[in-house]
């Protein structure tokens, strides 16, 4: 999964557009969906492709009855819901995992985790620019090493920030903007702790943002393109498309627009998620770049008891894109409803994944098994 030499400008959209974003100078991430293979070392390939093993498709894995076929260690071969041209390759022969201790490798300058890729086809939905009446939505994902629990792996949905493709979830260097090194470190810690990670892309190959706080979808979510994607992902978790996952133990996290999207999991899919961790974001329908004078654009309703426990992570220097008062307003509403909440702040950070995020998010999710 090669990185571009410079990144796309990730500006917060104007408040009238209602999208929370990241901001900085750069170029578009590679759109080719270069998923990685797992050769035991955990290093992604650099050619943007996948090294499938054709022999793996005829080794007699057991059928689940729903179109998916699994290898003895939980790897899957095929899914009837996805055309053969869209099937991701396996991330290396699973025999190569023997003796491995992690899907990832980490140095002071780089974190790399192997990944798999699945394309989900959905109806276009509102706000989509899909061709031929469908959307092709990529989900990058990975499962932990080892034998899954009887019910399957607990699973984290990780939502990208605006204009920052999910391609960047599984590889980052310490020089990346927005603390992306800590995002990939978080992926590593989750996988090593036994959580599967699913990282879907926003519309247009991840080059846009989530619709959760974009008019008219903020107030009319049902049937929009991102709602259809989440519904499909939830169904695929339940039917085993991603492998042996536990649909009763789902968690969500994300940065900026992805933080708002994490909140959307509580608002529109009550009961499906056990806990949330929101980095540099706030309530699902709030706008970004707000001053307290425009507080009407961040109205937190009375929250139901089904809202999951929520952790907030925030850089004290992020005073423009996601000001602290919008986070405080959400926390206040959670506390009023008797819902557990906590906040981790970093005095030296701005709009980014903060250094404390990997340990704090993992600990928060483990608190709600």
List the helices and strands and how they pair.
Layout: E1 62-63, E2 69-70, E3 104-106, E4 110-113, E5 116-122, E6 135-142, E7 153-159, E8 171-173, H1 180-192, E9 196-200, H2 225-239, E10 245-255, H3 257-268, E11 273-279, E12 310-315, H4 324-336, E13 341-346, H5 357-366
Parallel strand pairs: 7-9, 7-10, 10-11, 11-12, 12-13
Antiparallel strand pairs: 1-2, 3-4, 4-8, 5-6, 6-9
Report on the structure:
There is one protein chain. This protein has about 375 residues and is of the alpha/beta class. Helix content is about 15%, strand content about 20%. The two termini are about 35 Å apart. The relative contact order is 0.14. The N terminus is likely disordered.
Low-confidence stretches: 1-97
Q: What is the spatial order of strands in the main beta sheet?
A: 5-6-9-7-10-11-12-13
Question: From the 3D coordinates, which CATH architecture would you assign?
Answer: 3-Layer(aba) Sandwich
Mean pLDDT: 79
Structural class of the secondary structure composition? alpha/beta
Radius of gyration: 19 Å
CATH topology: Rossmann fold
What is the strand tally?
A: 13
